[in-house]
Specification:
The complex is a heterodimer of chains A (963) and B (301). With 963 residues, chain A is α+β, with helices and mostly antiparallel strands. Chain A folds into 3 domains: 544 residues, no CATH class; 171 residues, no CATH class; 169 residues, no CATH class. Helices cover 39% and strands 11% of the residues of chain A. In chain A, the strands form 5 sheets. In chain A, strands 1, 2, 3, 17, 18, 19 and 21 form a 7-stranded mixed sheet that branches. In chain A, helix 15 packs antiparallel against helix 20 and helix 15 packs antiparallel against helix 22. The longest helix of chain A has 34 residues. Chain B has 2 domains: 108 residues, Immunoglobulin-like (Sandwich); 178 residues, C8orf32 fold, CATH 3.10.620. The chains are: A alpha+beta (963), B alpha+beta (301). Chains A and B meet through strand 22 of A and strand 1, strand 3, helix 2, helix 4 and strand 9 of B.
Amino acid sequence: MLSGVTDLLSTVRRAAPADGAGSVVEAVAGTRGGPSRPPTGGAAVPATAAPAGWTGGGTAGSGASHRPDWSWLEDPADAPTPETLDRARRAGARLLAEHGVTYGGDAADGEDAWRLDPEPVIVDEAEWAGLDRALRQRAALLDAVLRDLYGGRRLLHDRLLPPHVVLPHPGFLREVDGLRLPGPRELVLTATDVVRDSAGGWCAVADRTQAPSGAGYAMEDRRVVAQVLAGVYRQASIARLGPFFHALRGALQAAAPAPRGDEEPGTTVLLTSGEASETAFDQAYLASMLGLPLVEGGDLVVRGGRLWLRGLDGLERVDVVLRRVDADWCDPLDLRSGSRLGVPGLVRAVRGGAVSVVNPLGSSVLENPALLRYLPRLARAVLDEDLALPSAPTWWCGDDVGRAHVRAHLDRLILLPTAQGPGVGAVLGWTLSAAQRETLAARIEAEPWAWVAQEPVGPSGPVVDLAAGAATAEEVAGIATAAPGLVTPPPGATAEVRAAVLRTFAVAHEDSYTVMSGGLARLSAGAVVSSALGAAAKDVWVLANPDAARPATQELPVVTEPGAGPGPGARATARSAGPLVEVFADGLHRVGGIAPRTAENLYWFGRYAERAEDQSRVLRALVDRWDDFHRTPWSAGGRALRDLLVALAPDALPDGRADVGPDGLLPAPALRDRLLDPVAAGTVATSVRRTLRAAAAVRDQLPPDAFAPLARVERALRDERQRRRADGSRAALPGGGAGVTAGMRPTLERVLEGVLAVAGLAAESLVRDAGWRFLDAGRRLERAQHLVTTLQRTVVVRRAPAVDDLVLESLLGVHESPMTYRRRQQSDAGVHVVPLLELLLRDRTNPRSLAYGLRRLRDDLGAVPVAGRAPDQRDHLLADVEDLVEELDTGTVAEAVTDGGRRDRLDEALESMRWRLLAVGEEVERVHFTRAAAARALEDPWDAGALRTPGDPAATAGTGGPR
Amino acid sequence: MSRVYDLVHRTRYAYAAPVTTSYGRTTMTPRSLPDQTCERTTLSVEPEPADTTAHTDFHGNRTTYFSVLTPHTELVVTARSRVEVRRTPPAVDELPAVPWEDVAARVRAGDVGDALLAVREGVLPSAHVTFTDAVRAWAAPTFAPGRPLREVLVELAHRIRTELEYRSGSTTVHTTQDQLLAQRAGVCQDFAHLMVAALRMHGLPARYVSGYIETRPRPGRPKLRGADASHAWVAAWLPGAGWVDVDPTNDRFVDDHYVVLGWGRDYDDVPPLRGVIFTEGSGSRLTVQVDLVPAGAEPFV
C-alpha cells in the first residue's frame, strides 16, 4: 500500500521546502502559459525533463512532499494522525467491501476491490475557482471542435488542425458524420485528467470524451471518506458533488429529442458494457444515482426507426441513451460488425432524430492526445481566447518537426499511441534499450500520425495516465516497456507516492458547463497511474471559504450525500453515510417495466440467496451431528449421522458412502469444502458468489444496503479460508475427528446471519413490483425444491425409532421448524414422520412448508406480466404440485412400508412433486427469460455478384484501355 | 458517347431456419456524376420492410437502411436503376506527366486545392488496405524514380492483370493483400485493394470504387440474363486530372461500359449489402444476380 505521505495535488499553503521551486501556489493555471511549453520549433529540451530526476527513485528537490493542510480546522489537534488514518483506511476498506465496490473484472477474493486512501486531497476554493473556469473553457472548446469535425471541418480545411490528426483516428466515425444532438452542446460529458506541474500549477495530460468513467467512484469515495473521517469531515465546508449529478440529469433532459405531437416523453437509460466491465460498479452506481435503468445492448431494440427498451410486457420508448459502451461497439449494423454490446439500427435511430446518444457517437475523436498540441491555437481561433489550462508539452509525430524532436529525445519522452487499445499503451522512453528504441522509432516512421510524445510532468516525477480500462503499459507490439520498478514499488518497500492524477468532470449546463467540485484523484508509486495497476483513489475536498454564502444550487437535495457542514457542529446530525436516496423531482421519465435480463437476474438472486441459506442450514445440522457422534459410529446417533451424511452431503464423502472403516472410525467427510470451495458446484461459497454476481447485475434495482450483508458473508468465508491456510501451514490439524468441523460452526452462523439479512431486506425494503415478484418466486421455488429433495432422501426410509428421532430432528432443523414442531407435539418426546410431513408439506401456516411456498409462488407468478409465450404449462405443473400436496394422506403413505423398510408411496408422491418443480423452473425460464434469438452478421456477398470468368466483360471489346 | 443502361442487382438469402428480424444497409444506388446520371432508381426488399430510409454518406454515396420485422426464410433485396453513362476514358498520353514523387510531395505539403481531405484520406491505410513489406516488394519495380504517375497506374493495372489469376471464390472478405500475393489469385475487390495499397504506401491518394461492368456473351451464344457482374476498381488522384478510374482486373481505364455505384477507402465503406439477422438457425444460401443491359431491353425478373 502506498504510504500516502506525499500529496501531489492538494493546495499548498505552507512554506516552500528547501528548493522553493514554485511550490507556493496562489491560484491557478488559469492565466499562466505552460511553464515549459515547447517552442513552436520544438527543438529545445525543456529543463524540467531531466530523466535523472524522475528515475532516481527519490523526490530529492521535489517541492511537494507534504501532508494536506489541516490548519483550517478549528482545533488543529483534530487533524488526522497516522493512527487515525490507519484506522480510517481499514474502516474504509471494510465499507467499500460492504458496498460491493469493485474495479476490474471478475477477480476472486477481493482482488478486484476498489482501493481508496481516505486522506483527502484538499484544494482551497480560491484555487479551485480558477481550475473550474479553465475546465469550463476547455469543455466549450472541445465541444466546438467536435461540432466542426462532424460538420464543416473548417478546422481541417483551414489547417488549424492537421487532417492526419483526425482522419486516421479510429474515434473519427464517418458513419455519424453530420449528426447533431438536439441541445446546445455536442459534448455533454467530459473528463480531463490534470496533474500538478513542476511549478505547482495545473496541467492537463488527457481528455476523456468517449464515455468518461469515475464519477460514480468519486461519489462513493466521498461517501466512505465522510464516514471514516467523520470528525474532520463535519468541521469542513466541503463543496458538494451533488450539483454535478443534478446538472448531468438536466443535460440528459436537454439532449432529448423534441416530442412528436403530444407523445409522452420516452425514458432515459444508461447503456452499460456489462458486469464483466472493469468499471461495472461505476456504471451501475451512476445509473442508480441518476435513477436510470441500467441496460445492456440486448435489452434494446430499434423498431420503426426508434429505440425501445424490451420490457416483460412490451416495449417502452427510449429517448436518451447515456452510453458507457465505446461508440464503435454501439451498432453492429453500421459500426463494428459482430458487436454484441450494441443495438443494430442505433445509428439509424440517431440519424432520424428519434434518440439522442450521450456522449454522441464519434466523440472519442477528441481523446487523441495529438489534440493537446493544437488546443492553444484552436482556442484562439475558435473562442478568441487564450487556453486557460495548459497541457503537458506534447509533440505529434505526424508533424515533421515534432517527429524530429521525438526521434532525438525518445529516451526522455512518454510515447503515446494516438488511439490506446488492448496491447497498445503508453511507452516510457527512458525504460527502453537502444534496440527497443530503434524498433519503436521504426514503428513511428511507418505510421507517424499514430504517435504522440509527451513530456513527463509533475513535481516529483513523470506521470502517465492510462484511461480506466485501457491497456497496461506493458507492451507495445513486442516492445517491453516500463521497468517494473517504475510501475510498481519493489516488493516489501514502502513506496512513496510518485505520481498523482486528478480526474475532473464537466457536464453541459445551459450555455456553459458545470464542473464537479472535486473529482477522482488517483495516486501511484510509479510513473504510471492506472487503476488497473493498483493506483489508489482519493477523495478531493474543495474547501469553501466558511464566510462565503453558499450558492443556492448547493441547497438542492439532489442526491443525499454525507452532509458537510459549513462549520463545526452545524450539520452534526447529518447522516454521515446513509444510502443515496434519489429525490429527483424533475421530469426524467422512469421506466415502468423491467427488462427480461433484469427479471432473470433478480430471480437468480432469489434462488442463489436461498440456496446459500439452505446449504448453510444443512451443513450446520451435519456439523452438530458430527461433533456429537463421530466417535461412536455404531450408536443410534452414529447411525443417524451416517444416514444424514449420505443423504445430504454425498459429495463430501468418498464415493458417497459413510462406511465405518476397519479402525472403527468414519472417513472424514469434506464438510469444510462444502462450505468454502469457491469453484465446486453445490457449495455455500459458490452460491454466495453467484448471489453476488446476480446482485451486481441488478445493482440499480437493489437497495445499497443489500451488498453489506453479502460482503460480510464473503468475508466470513474468506477469513475461514485464511485461517485454514494458516492452520494448514502449521500442520496443526488432526486428519479427522473434531478437526473435521473445527471452526465451521461460527463461520456458518456468520454466513446465516448475512443471508438472513439479505432475505430480510428483500422482504422489507423492496417495492412489490414485478422485479420483486421474480426475486421472491426464485426464493420460493428454490426452497420448495430443496424441501422435497431433502425429504425424499431422508424420510422414505424407515429406521429404528432411536435413529429416526435424530434424523428427523436434524431435518426439522434444516427446515427451521423444530420449535413449531415441539409446540404442536408437546406430549411426545420423539419426532414422528406423520406430524413432520404435515408440518413441512401441508401446514399452510408454516412459512417453511411446501403448501405455503407453493401459494406464494403462484401469487408471484400470477403477478408478473407475460409477453408472448404461453404460461399454461407452468401453471398446470404448479397446480398439479399443489393438488399432490393437498391430496397427500400423510398417515397412509407413512405406514405403507415395503419389506425392505422403504415408504414407497411417499417416495412416489415426493418424486411426482420433485420433477414437477424442476419443470416449473424450466417453464419460468422459458416463459419469462427467453431473449431474442442470437444476432449474427449477414453473410457478406463479397464476390457472389462478381465476374465468374474474366474473359467476358463487354468492355474489352470497347475502345481505349491503358494500352 | 453515351449509353443508357437498365440495371438490376438482386441479392437473395435463403435460410434453413426462420429469421425473426433482419436489419440491412445497401449501397446499390448509382451515384450521379459529371459523366454519369442516375435517371431513376428503386430498391425493393422482400418481405416488406417495416422501416427504410436513405441518406448520403460521408463519401457522398447513397445508402439505404431497412429493417424487416416479420419472420422469414428468404430475404430478397433488388435494386433497379436506369443510368446514363457518358464517360470517355483518358488517353494515357493526354494525362499530365507528373512524376509520382512530385504527386506524393504535393499531397504531403497539402498543395492540393480543395481536395485536401479526400487526398489525405486517400493515402492512409484502412480496414482492408494495409502497408506491408510484401506489397512494398511487389510494387517496387513499378515505382522507378521520376516515373510519371500515369505510367505507374498503367503498369500496376497491367501487372495485376498478367501476374495474378482471376479466380472466382478464391478469396473472402477477410483475405489480406499478403495472402493474395502469396496465392497469386483473387477477384476484382482483391485486385483493387492491392493497387490501392501499392499507391497509398507511396503517398499517392487512391480510393476503392464499387460499381458494375457490362459483359458480353461468348461468341455465338445468347447473352445470359443476370450474369453481369458487380465490380470494383481503383480511382487514383493525379494533379491536373483529378481522380482517374483504372480497372486492374481488366487492365484498362474505366469507360462507358462501367456504372459507378460509389466509392470509399475500401470495400468496407461501400459493400453492396451488409446486415444483421436474428435467428436460432445457422447458415444461409446466397445468390446474387446482376443484369446490366441497354435501356429498353426486356426487363429482367
